[in-house]
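For the sake of transparency, this paper describes our internal protein records without simplification. Such a record has a labelled line for the sequence and another for the backbone structure tokens. Nothing more is needed to write down the fold, since each code stands for a local backbone conformation. For reference, a complete record is included directly beneath this paragraph.
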Amino acid sequence: MSVDSDWMYWDEGGAEAGPFGLEDVAGLVRSGAIAPTTGMRRTSEAAWRSAASLLPDLFPDHVAAPPADGWTDLRPHPWRRYLARMFDAFVVGALVWTLIGIIVFSVAPAQAGPLFRVFDLPGGQFLDIILTQVVVAPFNALAIGLTGLTFGKWIFGIKVAKDGRPIGIMRALRREASVFLFGLGFGIPFASLFTLIGSFSELKDERITRWDKAGRFTVTHRPESRLATAGMVLAVILFLLGRGLVMALARLP
């Protein structure tokens, strides 16, 4: 490691500080300004990691807890993340809309039919996509905030954490809002295409998305294996079959 490498860290006020040379960083460690769990990165990189994982020699007495479930892969994996979100939108969205339908038809059966026929009007499919992302977001936030996972993220091997722990429900809600705005473009056709391409490229090139960088979240992945790959392929097949079935049922008179 080069002595003159430049380093950034998150100070106690929640702001980026630096760049600092390695000797300066060592002094900040001795003064207590940088702790083992403090977020750090090189100036040439965008992803934040704990100081102890980047500079273990500066923390000889620190024993890092092993990542939960052995999910140690820190590579970006944009396709896995995209598929996990689409899987959640489809599965969780179907369950939530079913629940909403049961409630509406139970409480106001006379108004339920005209209400849901809105989705059969021109542009109704786009409205369905947008509202599905909206109704799914709180459930994603609840799951990520408490466990770091959603059903789709578990299948595709993705976990969101902060300092090795779940990020909490409020942070997860803010993260979902940022994904909805900057990643999905509010679900608006064509706009979402550009935001998806942009966030995909950002993750591939910088190794971190703007919403994870803003929240100082760490995204780890289940290491690749034949079993994990087979599970993901099976999930994609089931996802496509499920979507095809739903579209076929929607065309029935």
About this structure: The chain has a mean pLDDT of 84.
